[in-house]
Amino acid sequence: MHTGRDMKKTIVKGMNLAELEEWVLQLGEKKFRARQIYEGLYKHRYETWQEFTNLSLALREKLQEYASIPKIEVTRHLKSELDATQKFTFEVAEGKEVEAVWIPSADGERKTICISSQVGCTLACAFCATGKLDFQGNLKAWQILDQVIQVEKLVGESASNIVFMGMGEPMHNYFAVLKTAHLLHDEDTFTFAARKITISTAGDVKGIRRFVENREPFNFAISLNHPDANKRADVMDIDKKYPLQELLAAAKDFTKTLGRKVTFEYVMIPDVNMSQEDAAKLVKLANSLNCKINLIPLNTDFYGWERPTEEQIAAFRQAISKAKVPVMNRRSPGKDINGACGMLSLKGKPNTPRTNYAR
Ligand code: SAH
Predict the structure, then answer these.
(1) What's the whole-model pTM score?
(2) Residue 279 C-alpha to ligand 1 middle, in angstroms?
């Protein structure tokens, strides 16, 4: 990975144009150099200074001395046998790993990359495998961004959508997450429209309020997962800090101030949140604001919980759609490679040895 000398250099990956401009001026170079570096990094995706042939040799040598273009290293690459999902484990720093998932839709129209924002997660949602890992810190913007760069390079295709739904709680790493989203949204480089980028939170009210205040243009999802104010905390610790009523008030404020729908993610867990009474509560809650609901069947089997049956899923969904609440069954592919929602815990396929890749 990086040498000690490299570590002292300025990391330019992850900088936005304004930051690069400031930096090149400090280096004694002309401001317009910043755009050349910016495009080299994010449009051409150069990984070494030698590749920046749009710059003079003398400048490339100077940059080589003062700046580094670090890269996250892929340590495992798994392909699903059930669908077209591929999962990548990346070493982002010595001993720290995160996962990103490439998820093409069945019709091939949408190609989504699901990226991580933290190494592990401090939240311990009862149904989520990431919550069982030790938390090892926030990712820097470049480490989040590089997941997109490296996945596109490894699959040899461009993504159409980005979701911040991998490991970690994006609102706990707010600055780096939003910075990355804005870099991805730049129409000269990554070119993702704001509505092709979705940021998801387990319900961090402070983060939601900040997002609204800054009038961020990106899609926003809240992992609701329980419609009952007295029971949500049983499965989501974060509800103790930000109770459901506060969360809903913030969500309502989002829809009013930004004039947009909020998406509620809802992991369906039999005997926990799938009764007809839960459905009625969910409908009531959904009717109080401009939202849609994405239903996700439980993917793992913590606490002996089991995945809902097709009948249970249909009955729950019907109770919601009958009330004219917009509802979708979210696909959650990549189960055989532990790549589906809530399964990112640095595990491979059952019985797959760890392979060193591209080293
Ligand atoms: N921390 C953020 C970002 C992660 S998104 C958040 O919670 O929104 C991951 C999504 O997968 C969330 O909607 C979460 O509720 C869902 N999820 C977690 N564990 C799951 C599981 N076992 N089965 C299905 N979905 C799960």
Answers:
(1) 0.94
(2) 19
